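Researcher: Here's the sequence for the chain we discussed earlier.
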Amino acid sequence: MMNHRFPNVGAHYQNVATTFTTWAPTRKNVELLLTGHPPISMQKDEFGYWSVTVPGVLPGDTFKYQLDNKDAYPDPASRHQPEGVHGPSAVTISEFQWTDEAWKGIGMPGMILYELHVGTFSPEGNFDGVIKKLDYLVDLGITAIEIMPLAQFPGERNWGYDSVFPFAVQNSYGGIDGLKRLVNEAHHKGIAVVLDVVYNHLGPEGNYWPQFAPVYTEKYKTPWGSAMNFDDAWCDGVRNYYWQNALMWLDEFHIDGLRLDAVHAIWDNSARHWIAALKSKVSELEKKSGRRKILIAEFDLNNPRYIDSPEKGGYGLDAQWIDEFHHALHSVITGEVNGYYEDFGEVAHIAKALQDSYVYTGQFSKHRKKLFGLMPEANPYSQFVIFSQNHDQVGNRLEGNRISTQVSYEALKLLAATILLAPQVPLLFMGEEYGEKNPFQYFIHHSDRQLVEMIRKGRKEEFHYFNWDGEVPDPQSEATFLKCKLSWAFEQDEESAVLLKYYKHLISLRKKHPAIQGPDKNTIAVYHKQEENNFIGFIRQSNDHQLLVVLNFGAEHGAFSMPIGKSATKIFDSSAGEWKGPGAIAPDTIQPNQKINMNAHSAVIFEI
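Model: Thanks. This is the structure I predict for it:
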């Protein structure tokens, strides 16, 4: 039984017949209700899967399932919801012709990630709108786009984390073929596609899966309520459902990687953790397809178990997001030290993040009120994704304001240099490359008025411990959503245009200079001294190539002591006039033990 193959859930059309399969282990009777036809009985197997094959059912035909001769619901594994989350499901077929045969994917060391939200990234707000911007992303130097969740959610606007049909592509974005067209075109441009998926909870509106099966467990709690059932009675159906979902994106849609949302909320005490089994299945797909497939975790734990290899007792994921890198940067640049920022605020924290990826590796956390974290001693830098902004860190502020509205132009350039010259894998949040000023606020489009009011109240309570002043934008309002559309201001604004050029320059340097190529722990040496507290210097090295990067996080100019006994030549200065800086004061060449004068909030690079 350990190798039991569960049936594929959902409606699958083949040879002028469609097989319908749904998982409802505790139901005594399940019938297929094809629109305009009498009920059709389904047969149940020992694991609670109900199936029937019906000839003559064609793509586009709609259906629901009737449970125990009572209520009828759409398919929890629906591939298409043409009328939204409350309407019937539709049988689908995709006749898309792929032309990306030469594409083999890319590994984590080669990734420069760009997170985007389909609805707000382009004026069109759909997959075709993203396709139109692919040449722009190529010119910027991006090698992978990370798309916020696309699974069907209520209404036409949402971050995507309220999805309730994980197998259905959001109908307002362009559907199945629209997504395939985007992936195909991205691959032709040399861009990988990573998709954000949510396996730790389901949204509150249109969530009909619990009517079919025990998909939740009360053994654990999550920030969204009861946990998904990954290890309790009848858990096999939940585990199978999400494995099938992950493999659908990676195989059928040619997606190159998945960003697994908040895996610390996937509670599983099974003999083999669901994530470890997922990695094994994805590895099998890699061998079968001959293409690289990546799994990136988001989790709020400094625990390398998730990214350690199975041989070391880990789950084998390829990489993880590092919120602490962001927190260390943000608290120093903005001075904010409330909420979860209370654990940060010192330049030494940034130095620790550069050297160790995790900031807390066993120290006492004031915010968590406990010793926290473990040193990731054997994990290369390519397993850690870092950022100065992302959808959470912008959108979960009171007004969704970006860092570009909080700090100076020089500070923005310093943040960019830190992220793009660090040894970890950089991620940009859409628009940051030109200093986008429009906010990224939380938005929804629910039809349940009571739910909308609960969400409005919850958002206000969420910001309480930050002590931010102001009113929370109404998440239900279309105006809130429209404010979040990118302005593409670099086309009219000189500062934005120069910042975009600045990002391009640093990304090009990262991709081309041999000293920045190595992901291993011995490719960086970080220097930070208490007597020069605002400064961090680090040397990136590979074979005979070395670069010295010096960062001044202070609000005033100062001097940094050359950390090595060699001379060096300056090749980059964020204060230079070409970057609309105040004028470079760092010397063009430096000698051993020489002091390096630098402007406030600036970055310089020397070739050794």
